[in-house]
Each structure stands twice: as structure tokens, then as C-alpha cells.
Amino acid sequence: MMSSQENVDDTGFSERLKSLIGTQSARSFAQKAGMGDSTLRAILNGAMPRLDNLLRIAEAANVSVEWLATGKLPTKSDSQFEEEFALIPGYNVQVAAGHGAIAGDESPTRELAFRRKWLRFRGFHEQDLALVFAKGDSMEPTISDNETVMVDTSEKKLRDGHIYVIRNGDHLLVKRIQTLWNDGVQLLSDNKEYPPQEIASTNLENLEVIGRVVWVGKDL
To answer: What is residue 115's DSSP assignment?
Structure first.
């Protein structure tokens, strides 16, 4: 058993915790884990948990302490984990919530666990989902810099009001969509300091829709 906070992987711990909390409120999960709401929020914001709190969180979420602390995947014999959780692949790719970012290595570099019950409730299929990083501030407050973004790659059709990851050449953008009367679209930023970008219908073929954003550490 781990003996100190030094064994906790702080780079991915808060992401794993957010995925376990899912649609619950932080307060509700804190009560379930028998810990203070302020303590849980501090951990979600990057504070390292004491060992007793780590144990409480793992027990409340019904996951192994080792996976929660380190991200080490469960063994094949851990059937209970596999039945309850789906492991969604994460990619070392930045999608620009700003003026554009070059796509990096598109091989999976990590996996985060999401409850299968939550995926079914949202109508998602795990094979269609991918996790990437947002870069920039143009989608604030909906998406913040360096937040993990879940993309449903099965949703390619652009619909009003939804947020999509779009490839334009070597650049990946994350923008809200508004369809126009002339069959073009506007790429909108939730941060109103960024002006809309209009794409004429004749240029739409140059855009590749990667998928719709469906989760950013919180439901959209």
C-alpha cells in the first residue's frame, strides 16, 4: 500500500477524479466519500490528497487505490472494474480554443475511466470517443486552457449551437457552430473578445469535422 502523497500521479489525478464524479455534484460525491466539500474541491483544483482521503475516494467510487493514484490500468482479472468502467483513450493532441494549434502525435498516450452507466445514459459508444487537450482562451468560460475535452467522433454533421473539433489543414480548432442562411457556417467563440469566423459554403469541403465536444470535465 502507498505510504505517502509522493506516490500520487498529480498530472492525471484530478482528471481521473473528475471522470469518477461524472454527473454528480462535487458536494454529493464528497458526502458519499465522507469528506468535506472544500477538501474535495481543493483536490479537484490540484491539491494532493492525504492517504486517508485517497482511500475514501477510491472506496466511494469503487475503484482501486492504485489506479486512482497512479493511472496504472487494472489487470485483466479485475472483471468488476471492466464491467463498470470503460477506458477512453486520450491523445497528446491540442485543439485550439484560440487561433489554431498544430496537431501532435495522434497515438493514444493515456486512458481515463468513465462509468459505462453514464455513457449509456448520454447515448455514447465508447469506441467513438476520444480525449484531447484544449489550448487557448477563446472558448472561456465553457472550455479553459489545458482542459481535457471529450469528442464524439461519430457526430460529423454540424448542428447549430453545438461545439465541434474541426481540422483545417494541419490545424485543429474547437468552436461553437452557427449555420447561415446561405449554407455557410460561422465558427463562434464563447469568449466574445474573439470575432466570429465565417466559412462560405464553397469552402466547407476544406473543413474536416473530427466530432462533437460532449464533455469537458463537466457535461455540455
So the answer is: E
